[in-house]
Design brief:
87 residues; alpha+beta; 16% helix; 1 helix
């Protein structure tokens, strides 16, 4: 799995993880050999920050009240959006 694929996979997993609770959380992503490929943190508002294996910020994601999640790269540029069905 390439590094780019691993990051996209991690971002997708994080987006699909469900509604964020009122607590902060952290998730670590590993490849099939167990090496850390990145991590993410979620703040109390549900905003996610993604980090590469070197600890540098690689992107952010936030979900609006309509259920649309916007992904941004480390420079703040929109890279993708996804909408989940409302429950």
């Amino acid at each position: 799995m390439s590094r780019t694929t691993a990051i996209i996979f991690g971002l997708t997993l994080a987006a699909l993880a469900g509604d964020a609770g009122a607590q902060q959380s952290e998730q670590t992503f590993r490849d099939s050999s167990g090496r850390v490929t990145g991590r993410s943190t979620t703040d109390s508002q549900g905003n996610q920050t993604f980090y590469g294996p070197d600890g540098r910020t690689t992107g952010r994601a936030s979900t609006d009240s309509q259920g649309t999640t916007t992904f941004r790269d480390s420079s703040g540029r929109v890279t993708a959006t996804t909408t989940s069905p409302r429950r």
